[in-house]
């Protein structure tokens, strides 16, 4: 049994107070309503009140369900589907949304942000080089100048700033979603096939849903999951030296940073790659916890997609 004060209910608008005569049958009113009314009302008023509760529990559940399903329905047919909420995906989402495109980003983790949260070996700071600083400044990230044209920033602060700015610009973020395949139509990538990440992890036989998109961005990091799936399943050649996903090479910071941006491109009609996925498909180096290349790759992808969608 739950009790609310009548004054509180009136004040917060959670209840509807209806004056009635004492002998009136309180038909249609739940027990909780009756008890509240009878014990309180006599001391305050000369007549009984019927209080209809708008149970807060129901409002919370209904609010979430209404809002979530409206959001999902609104994103069934979009301009750009971004797979992976690492730094490159988030920056791409920010610039695309800022340009007015309908963008949804899917990440299988509860907390998007990819490999940026942990800095290096869980030392939660990252390095960004001068070339990428205009992006850092535009996103309002705090930083400190370090040596040789590099800057240090807190990785948790930076990651949350990217998430905040991308969503604030209008991108919709779906976490706990795995993109398990693409929609392949008329010899181009035309959308993504999504399922709950735990469904995939548990190996449950549950069919996915589809999201149609004019462009799909593979920002899945080292594993280049989307590009790999497209190449493996459709007997097509990607725009890479071998026509397939080559796989990343070992660590070389400057080379890796340069090629991350160079390899950011459309690898198949409708399918773009950014960040480590760009280096992975083209067989370039990884680079460790320097993140300027990832940010610049995200911005470059957004520019390429915007140009293509014009
Ligand atoms: C968890 C993690 C830890 C890392 N730790 C280190 C490290 O310690 N040192 C280092 O040098 N580099 C590390 N990296 C890589 C490094 O962080 C990357 O160089 C950089 O973060 C790459 O950025 P990105 O934009 O390519 O995407 P990433 O940061 O790699 O993020 C990719 C995102 O895609 C999501 N994703 C992948 N596949 C799917 C899918 N099918 N559906 C939906 N979402 C998907 C992942 O959940 C992830 O959030 C790590 C990457 C990850 C993901």
Write the layout of secondary structure elements.
Layout: H1 6-12, E1 15-20, H2 31-44, E2 48-53, H3 56-74, E3 77-83, H4 87-98, E4 103-107, E5 125-129, H5 133-138, E6 144-145, E7 150-154, H6 155-169, E8 172-175, E9 177-185, E10 188-196, H7 197-201, E11 209-218, H8 225-234, E12 249-251, H9 253-262, E13 265-268, E14 271-273, H10 275-282, E15 285-286, H11 292-309
Helix pairs in contact: 4-6, 4-11, 9-10, 9-11
Bound molecules: flavin-adenine dinucleotide.
Flavin-adenine dinucleotide binds at residues 83-89, 106-109, 112, 114-116, 118, 120, 178-179, 219-221, 225, 275-277, 288-289, 294.
Main attributes of the structure:
310 residues, alpha/beta, FAD/NAD(P)-binding domain, 2 domains, eight-stranded mixed sheet, three-stranded antiparallel sheet, 11 helices, disordered N terminus, binds flavin-adenine dinucleotide, transferase
Task: Describe what this molecule looks like in 3D.
By secondary structure, this protein is α/β, with parallel strands linked by helices. The chain folds into 2 domains: 6-54, no CATH class; 75-309, 3-Layer(bba) Sandwich (FAD/NAD(P)-binding domain). It contains 11 helices and 15 strands. The chain has helices at residues 6-12, 31-44, 56-74, 87-98, 133-138, 155-169, 197-201, 225-234, 253-262, 275-282, 292-309; strands at residues 15-20, 48-53, 77-83, 103-107, 125-129, 144-145, 150-154, 172-175, 177-185, 188-196, 209-218, 249-251, 265-268, 271-273, 285-286. The strands form 4 sheets. Strands 3, 4, 8, 9, 10, 11, 13 and 14 form an 8-stranded mixed sheet that branches. A 3-stranded antiparallel sheet has the order 5-7-6. Helix 9 (253-262) runs parallel beside helix 11 (292-309). The longest helix has 19 residues, at 56-74. Flavin-adenine dinucleotide binds at residues 83-89, 106-109, 112, 114-116, 118, 120, 178-179, 219-221, 225, 275-277, 288-289, 294. Fe cation binds at residues 207, 222. InterPro entries: FAD/NAD-bd_sf, Thi4_fam, Thi4_prok. Its cofactor is Fe(2+). Homooctamer; tetramer of dimers. NAD(+) binds at residues 88, 115, 179, 205-207, 276.
